[in-house]
Amino acid sequence: MKALAVDLAVSKLTVAAKNEDHTVSASYDIGMKQSETLLPAIDYVLEKADLNKSELNYLALSAGPGSFTGLRLCFAALKAIELAFNCPLYGVSSLDAYAEHYLSLPFTIISCIDAKKEKFYAKIWENKKILLEEGDYEVPVIAEKIVSSETPVLICGSDADILKQELIKADNSLSSKEIYTVSFSVNTAEQLFISAERMIKEGKHPLNDYDGPVYLRASEAEEKKALDKK
């Protein structure tokens, strides 16, 4: 398979191009410089993988939750390639992509992104079964789900260390529980290939033209607009 994948759900931009068994990837911890880096990064990995956009079998992206700006940029860039080259685009949950590498381990897995405002985007698995559906949660809700878990806890995602600290603050009994974190170093764009190809194998449909990012909460502008109407 020949494919391009982009994760821009958080400030770290990860891009990967796959040419059959050969994969080229690049990561940029760029903060607010996403818009000026994304397109050159895509061109770079495609060139290094010896791929033209017209050759791609599919595209994959992290569909959210995550950064409102980053998700919009990612969707705009890959939908442009989708339309120009009639290439199917698959959207994968950011939280699923971050957990993909760890789900086979004998842990309760928490995938997380700091959603600010004392909340986290999170999803929890136990024995590969979903214990907490993807959502925008206050820390005590997440803590309650893992207090009685019989396996050690592994937290992954962009803000694993922060969530661990907040969980122990929320419930001190968790200080004696085995809770591990993993650094956000796994190439998340390459994880998108695994998820997207599973979707293709299962016959799942790519994104429709009208599909957009999964935000899980209203933007600050939308919240302000709602308050102004009251």
Descriptive report:
With 230 residues, this protein is an alpha/beta fold. Helix content is 36%, strand content 30%. A 5-stranded mixed sheet has the order 3-2-1-4-5, sandwiched between helices. Strands 8-7-6-9-10 form a 5-stranded mixed sheet. Helix 1 crosses helix 2 and helix 4 crosses helix 5 (160-170). The N and C termini lie far apart (52 Å). The model has no long low-confidence stretch (mean pLDDT 93).
Q: What is the approximate shape?
A: elongated
Low-confidence stretches: none
Distance between the termini: 52 Å
Beta-strand proportion: 25-35%
Helical residue percent? 25-40%
Structural class assignment:
alpha/beta
Describe the biggest sheet? 5 strands, mixed
Compute the average pLDDT: 93
Q: What is the overall number of helices?
A: 7
Strand and helix order? EEEHEHEHEEEHEHEHH
Gyration radius over CA? 18 Å
Number of strands: 10
Name the strands of the widest sheet in spatial order. 3-2-1-4-5
Secondary structure elements and pairings:
Layout: E1 2-7, E2 12-19, E3 22-29, H1 34-48, E4 58-64, H2 68-85, E5 89-93, H3 94-99, E6 108-116, E7 119-126, E8 129-138, H4 139-146, E9 153-157, H5 160-170, E10 179-181, H6 188-201, H7 220-229
Parallel strand pairs: 1-4, 4-5, 6-9, 9-10
Antiparallel strand pairs: 1-2, 2-3, 6-7, 7-8
